[in-house]
Amino acid sequence: MADLLRNIREMCAVSWQADRARSIASLVTTALVPVTRSMQAIGFGLVADGVLTGDDRRAATGAVVVAGLTAANRVLDWGSVTVRMRLREHTILLLDQLVMSYVVATPGLEHHERKEHQDRLGLIGWERWALNNPFMPIAWTLGSLVQMVTTLAVLGSLHPLLLLLPLAGAPPLLIGLRVEAMWERVRQEHAEAKRSLALLFELATTAPAGKEIRVFDLAEELERRHRQTFETVDRRERAADLRAGLMAAAGWGCFAIGYMAAVALVVDRAVAGALSVGAVVVTLSLGAQVNRQVTELVDNARWFTRVTEAIGRYRWLADYSVRAHAALAPVDPAPVPERLVSGVTFDGVSFTYPGTDAPVLDDVHLHLPAGATVAIVGENGAGKTTLAKLLLRFYEPTEGAILVDGVDIRHFEVDAWRQRMSAGFQDFAQLQFLARESVGVGSLPSVDDAEAVAAALDRGAAGNLFAHLPAGLATQLGREFDGGVDLSTGQWQKVAVARAMMRAEPLLLLLDEPTASLDAATEHALFERFAAQARRAADRSGAITFLVSHRFSTVRMADLILVIEDGRVAERGTHDDLMAADGRYAELYRLQARSYR
Amino acid sequence: MRWERSPRRDLVRESAAVSPLLTLAAGALVVASGLLPAAFSLASGALAGTVAPAVGRGMGSATGQRVVVALAVAAVVYVLIQVVGPLRASVCDILMRRVDESLAIQLMRAVSGPRGIAHLENPAVLDRVAQAQGAVTGATAGAGITYLGSTWSLRLQGVTGLVILSRFRWWLPLVLGAGQGVSFTWRRRHWRDMTNVVFDRTDGLRQADYLRRLAVRPDAAKESQVFALGDWLVDRYRTSFLDTMRPVWRERRSGGPVALTVALLLLALEGGALLMVVRAGTDATIGLAAAVVYAQAVLATAALGAFDMDHLRLEDGLRSLEVLRELERAVPEAVVGLAGRLPATGLPERVIRFEGVRFRYPGRDTDVFDGLDLDIVAGQSLAIVGTNGAGKTTLVKLLARLYDVGGGRITVDGTDLRDIDPVAWQQRVAAIFQDFVQYPVSAHDNVAFGALSHAGDRGAVETAARRAGALDLVTALPNGWDTVLNRQFTDGADLSGGEWQRVALARALFAVSAGAGVLVLDEPTASLDVRAETGLYDRFLDVTRGVTTIVVSHRFSTVRRAQRIVVLDRGRVVEDGSHDELVRAGGRYASMYALQASRFWEDDGGG
After folding, report:
1. Is the pLDDT at B4 greater than 60, yes or no?
2. What ipTM is given for this predicted complex?
3. Tens digit of pLDDT for each residue in B224-272?
4. Contacting residues of A for B392, CB less than 8 Å apart
5. B464-467: Cβ within 8 A, 24+ apart
6. What's the pTM value of the predicted model, to 2 decimals?
7. Is the Cβ pair B218, A109 closer than 8 Å?
8. Which residues of B touch A245 (CB under 8 A)?
9. Beta carbons of B527 and A48 less than 8 Å apart
10. Interface contact B523, partner A, CB < 8 A
């Protein structure tokens, strides 16, 4: 019961927060509609009695009451629909904002890879149209109850036994709740398959995949898989539907029999002369209404449990986010240093991705000296990117610690630590904003500062990247939206590198294969700038540039080179040291050099 | 206005195609739930009529027996009403899902059917796709089945009311019917106008949704964490949504005055009709039972004028269907150039020739190519180099006929590419693009997708994987070849960037082994480690023997292996020759190569 109340409170809070005025209006209009309906029955009673007794005025009053209420109802209905739609839109907006902030505020990347997290996000995504306005079940339940009470008052005045009529509503209600519980189980079981359906649909209907789909002629295959996945899901849902239909029909049959028993009672009393014939008319004309009221109550009860499940999902996501934050909250907080003196140290760091068995990093000891440009080389899957992800605290080491000037990074607030880093990734995001923004988000305070963006582009050796665009820095990027201009992959990568250059003085600049798609001239220019910048930054703040690359022409310029192999540091030193040592690095270097001779 | 009826019929046809039996059942249940309430009100009237004569005589009397029969009839009708509702809901629910699936497939087909991709990069088409999905209004066409049922049974109730009233005064149904019709038509028109306002703003809504997805999906998660974009994204989403919806809300308010006018009009009509019925009752022109039945019939006609939530959801669902049909018609028209009937078997045998090719992307005001001439000799390997944005990938897209040229022509062994069946030609082409697809399917299927007709050939899949250097990583996966390559799915696994590239490469090589004659590799080694790249190129000539191969790359270690290299600059070929020739020529290629290679040479000089 406490849980139920908590959910009700939360539901009200959501609606209230989304749109106060319309929350109230929605409650009022929704509650009024049924009231006018049951008052119509009284009008009908007047008509019947008037006709029976030949009382002209009484019958006419009845007719006017009925017609007037019908008209009032019509206007109310319009108002109610309009109010509810707007409230629904505001509620969707609010709920979306909530979900967005839960997900983005969850530190790390693990939640993006967890099935239970993704399933809930998926369910919420589909429910947002149906489950907006969590206020409605309450308003409608109240409305139906008010209506029910008025109806019962009318019936009870005829015969006290009729007050027992609500008992007939019990079977459909209980069955309705069971059916809803069954559907909730089905929904949860099918969440993954439905995500898969959405992905297949997306592959078939969006441009990036469109090229391959055509060249490899995959459209029919995607269609086949879509249909197959659907059929698997639907077989179960069809059975559920059939069962739900039969169960509900049985429940409603019970209700109907109960109601007709009541009618029989009134008819019997009337025939006995204890009640007027008008009472029979009233009871019968209430038949449709009682039906509707109980239907609404059952629907609302089901809707209510459904909304409660949905609220539960939101709460789960919120709790997940809070827990993830709490897990990272420093026990013994320390400020992030202004400048690096000694550097960053991996002290026996091991790491295994959640849900997998094989460690990616295994007892890694390494030191990134302050002011150094450090290059990481190694084969695909050796764990290079993972090192960067741990530095960014996307994940926490399973064992060991990362120390900054001797302080465990777990003593820093995650946000404060990240504030002093910048990064460009191998699988960078192509942010379809205005050109200025797509770069500028690298440092939000300067997102609209054209000069800061131009400077970052320049630092990223992409000074003239936007020169040819129709509206320069104000051009919409990407082909998805009106007036958008697409960039080539290499140009997108330049945007990503420039974005990483937005923050003025990061302590740590992580570049994960920043030049994979760049042309030779840009790559060259970029590295000369990196080197110069790294030296300047090193003097001021002891900043470290951390570079993952397969291009040895670049790697060799680094102050320190780390060779990662099978999750361990296999070799370390300068280019000359490593060449002299004639180990793995020298082998790989010669392998690549061979291609240039 | 022809749309008024056709989408409804279309929806029913779809439903019948999905399941004739269930559609028939739904129809019967809809008719039943439309007629039963009227039957109940007739039975009620009859029951009320039998009670008065029996008063005081007891149930056992002859008149009393009549009461019992009337009561029994009313009871049966009432029970039926109760049972029909839930059954109808279940049947409609099943139909809804199956119709939505069928329409989703039709939409996928409409969008993925055309062989070009220009329409996929056209925001107006993307707007239509979102509308056809029901993503803009939240109402799918399939859901319309339920609403179609409920609105029809409502309408049937209204019509029954009219029929009953015709026995009272023949002209009364005409007046009431006309009034209700005016109400319904006006309100529907107003709603359609409003949906049009929303549709006009689909681009804005898609932008808002893009922001939502950026926050919720993993694609930009790393950036959003490092740069603390969370609040900014949420804020922008809010502004974007509100800015888009404001005009819609303004429009919606304009419905108020007219709703009021219509209510007053109907008040006059219904009030007048009710008074006539009542007057006839008190005059004893008609009996009590008839008066009750007629009065209820007057109110029942209101169902004809009603336009409630169900109606407007139905209307929106039908709009989705209309948009789908428009898309089916419009998309093929938009890519009408992408036709051709000639077979592509064995092409190319001699040469693929670009002759004065001109091309610009739709909506852009600058040409990518302005007279490109290039011969690609069949069976040879050709590398294309050039600065970022020089048009390398566009060239590849034209070659794969994802776009048709804007001027000039591309010929294959002398035949204009536009005369060749695009499906057949694309089957000749195996390509891996820079932004290759990471399919959320098993490792095996990720490779086999290169040539589905040969998917059963496990040996060939493995060979392709070995050649691409992907075999070891696949066998190391928890479920080997059966592992789904996406962590979001049960027992899924993820690959690193370089590992994915090997899988994508294996896909293209598998297509070649299955018979594709043209291999396009757009930056195939960008993320590969040194050993993988070297290994690949040591096998390169072997793998591509007899296959026309086009490689786009910035890595000169990759490029130099090609038999021929062209340098592309501002949409034209500026240098053409073998690696040695171009280096000797000392032009642009030589200087680009030197930029990358000089560091290795320094090394030679030093030691």
Report:
1. no
2. 0.91
3. 999 999 999 999 999 999 999 999 999 888 888 888 898 999 999 999 9
4. 488
5. B464/B506, B464/B507, B464/B509, B464/B510, B464/B513, B465/B502, B465/B503, B465/B506, B467/B506, B467/B509, B467/B536, B467/B539, B467/B543
6. 0.91
7. yes
8. 86-87, 89-91
9. no
10. yes
